[in-house]
Amino acid sequence: MNAGMRATGIFPASLPPDRMLALGIQRLDAEPGQALDLAEAVLRRAPGAPQAQLLAGQALRRLGRPAEALTRLSALARGHRTVAAVLWELAQAASEAGDARQAIAALESLTRQQPAVAQGWFLLGRQLRKVGRAQDAWRADLAGVHASSRDRDLLEAAVAMNEGRLDEGEALLNARLQRLPDDPPAIRLMGEIHWRRGDMTLALEWVERAVYVAPGFDLARDFLIRLLLQNNRLTEALDHAERLTGSPLRHPGYALIKASVLVRLGDQQGAAAIYEQLLKAKADQPQVWQNLGHALKTLGRQADAVHAYRRAVHYQPTMGEAWWSLANLKTVKLDGEDIAAMEQALVALDPQREEDVLHLHFSLGKAYEDAGDDAAAFRHYDLGNRLRRAMVPHDADDFAAETAAMASTFTAPFIAAQGEGGCPAPDPIFIVGLPRAGSTLVEQILSSHSQVEGTMELPDMMAIAGRLQSRVDEGEFPDFRTMIASLTPADRTRLGEEYLERTRIHRQSGKPLFIDKLPNNWQHVGLIHLILPQAKIIDARRHPMACGFSGWKQHFARGQSFTYDLTDIGRYYCAYVDLMAAFDAAMPGRVHRVFYERMVADTPGEVGRLLDHLGLPFEESCLAFWRNDRAVRTASSEQVRQPIFTDAVDHWQRFEPWLGPLAEALGPVLPGYGR
After folding, report:
1. Where are the annotated TPR repeats, by residue (predicted)?
2. Number of folded domains in the chain?
3. Would you state the pLDDT for residue 10?
4. Is there a single domain that holds both residue 509 and residue 637?
5. In a shared domain, residues 190 and 253
6. Cα distances (angstroms) measured from residue 546 to each of 44, 491, 577
7. Using CA atoms, how far apart are residues 337 and 322, in angstroms rounded to an integer?
8. pLDDT of residue 556
């Protein structure tokens, strides 16, 4: 036995070379030292044997001696330039030895011969990035993803995930990742499995890892952007969106993704420029025309928005959302030709396309309302709402119980018991209430002040409240009251600071105060008080029949599930009034209430009282709010760009014969309004 064999003490020297090679291959991963001994023994008996040279190089690499492995494998490759296993080992040894150029040469040869070997492409991408060939590296990653699309293991995991067998899919991916720890498609799929389970933290970790391992993995970066948007991490989303637009694929969808991020950031101008560029290259894109219309509407360019929406329905007459976008420009009236076109679109549409159908019903409701045919208008509004209610459920009993629990939590004694705490910054002004109650008007008035910046409906307080509620849902606390009571003054300060940090990206002007106009924050006035004790809170309120009917005929994109049934609206309004009354009792004077009808009747007086509550000096610009050219994203965007008019105050009375369910659900709230 040779010295190496004697060291192992288990292999007789008389073993045939092919048997030694077989044993070496078996022990390569678990015992690379033994595999090397066996390879050397074969080479002494058969100098230059290719399989033994390959085994020796493989073993040396696994023993952490990549330079020696590279020497062996380079010599072997000179005579075996087309052997995939030799090229693969040479590339890995060169990579580990820091010789990127030799690794690239081996991998380029390997991927030419065997383009279906995904791992070869991904390793090539990593090496190309080391030598500064970023675009070539990107293409290599894309080729690796393409090759992976035919991988049986990945296909089985994807099928299991799509069929809801998430545990099975995860098990398949874990087995693969044991073998290939840095396999980008498996890592991305694992992220999607966690996302489908609702674990956003793990989903982000996995997908971020996929993009880190393969920066040219466009589909993973696309998914990451969407996850970041869901978590309101807008700066990071924009960074990734800008990178994605540099893809060698030049996919127009990547520009659309960037535009969607810009919209979320409030950069409507930047988004509109992207849409216009895409349409310049290819005009027959109804979705892009619609997106452009949204941006132009927000910027106050109404005529241009109308043109964009009309181009959208020109290219796709059944595009319900584009019709609704036209109708939703409150200062635009759809005429008889429009009504005929929409009625024809309804006939042509497959009933399964429910989104288009319901949008057309809402649009026809608005068109018939403008035409004075109230019965036809109500019928279409009713049909649209019934369709939407079936898609977006709302449990009025559960919601009433939640608000009652909130009222019983934030009592005066409870608040007093919490003592000092919270972030003392006075920056935020919260405008709360129900949608269609005049909050956009109040925002436009205040944002016309030199010290106040208007932003948009920010989701950040809802996100913080939702995270706190999840601690109750997961069993950490028995109820919301106990959880809130557990927050120390330092905890509340940290939460207030978190809110300011999360919203900082929306503050562009340097003004000391800013507005958060998310209406639903009325549910969290108690939490706002505890974590931001110096913030101002304004309750924008409107007559319950006017507010309720206006909300019912307004199709909201998201977030207002109660608005699709008149009885649900009435009960929701009652819960809102009761909770705000409880907050008034617990925190007298904390909330300033603005009644829409009073603002319309006496704008200077109401504006003066509003500014006094905020501690701001009166400025004439607040009375000329319609001259403010800031972006406005809500349904009232066009109405607040003109002086106050009184038409909407009693408009609901035209439809009073059909509004019995709303009036009945409102009960005593109706005669008590304004007291």
Report:
1. 286-319
2. 3
3. 54
4. yes
5. yes
6. 96, 41, 15
7. 16
8. 86
